[in-house]
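Example 226.
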Amino acid sequence: MKAAFVTATGTDIGKTYVTAGIIRALRGQGAQASAIKPVMSGYDPGRPEASDAGILLAAMGKPVTAATVAAISPWRYAAPLSPDMAAAREGRAISLPDILTFCRAAIRAAPGLMLVEGVGGALVPLDASRTVRDWIDSLQLPALLVAGTYLGTISHTLTAAEALLRQGGRIAAIVLSESAHSPVPPEETDASIQKFLPGIALHIIPRHFNHLSFQQLADFLARSCG
Ligand SMILES: Nc1ncnc2c1ncn2[C@@H]1O[C@H](COP(=O)(O)OP(=O)(O)OP(=O)(O)O)[C@@H](O)[C@H]1O
Ligand SMILES: [Mg+2]
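Predicted structure in complex with magnesium ion:
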């Protein structure tokens, strides 16, 4: 069993982009790789292909249908809000124990690397008392922390890393997915973060021509997540 949990410093940072890129890179080398997105808010059933689950299914080379989306993303909510709020609006609370059961079964059944994409950032609430971090810790999976390169990302990244490590969690790597607007080259942000988190691997995924960067990240994960 090889698996990792893809989380981020916040929403819209690049979790799905990075997860899909890793899956494509591994599949391109003939390896098996898959992903699940158990909790999805802001889901429009009229456009499944635009959803995170749709993007991940396409990367896996699978058709995007209501059934295939439901299979990798059982907790789908319409409101584009944090999951606890979206769930409350539909009167369908999120059950962390049920999510854990779903994830464990999916990881067990996966023939190769399984990536579990979280929702929003590392401390997004799932219900009144639990956050994504509790989900990661319960699964005992190494986290892949996706961060941007925008102004302010260094503090966001160090804050998220500290939160992930606080209860004994592991960070497999931090992935700097280059933001649309960056004040400095990603390498400079990388070097700054590295000074404060010396033991943690950092990978940069540039905005353009990033095929090789995804290959290197995929190789690293295939080696390190077990
Ligand atoms: N390195 C990158 N190069 C090009 N585009 C990127 C990169 N990183 C992120 N993006 C783009 O930024 C947007 C947000 O990324 P993405 O949907 O992966 O974020 P997310 O963290 O999965 O968001 P959510 O919290 O909604 O799940 C997408 O349009 C994605 O294609
Ligand atoms: Mg996403």
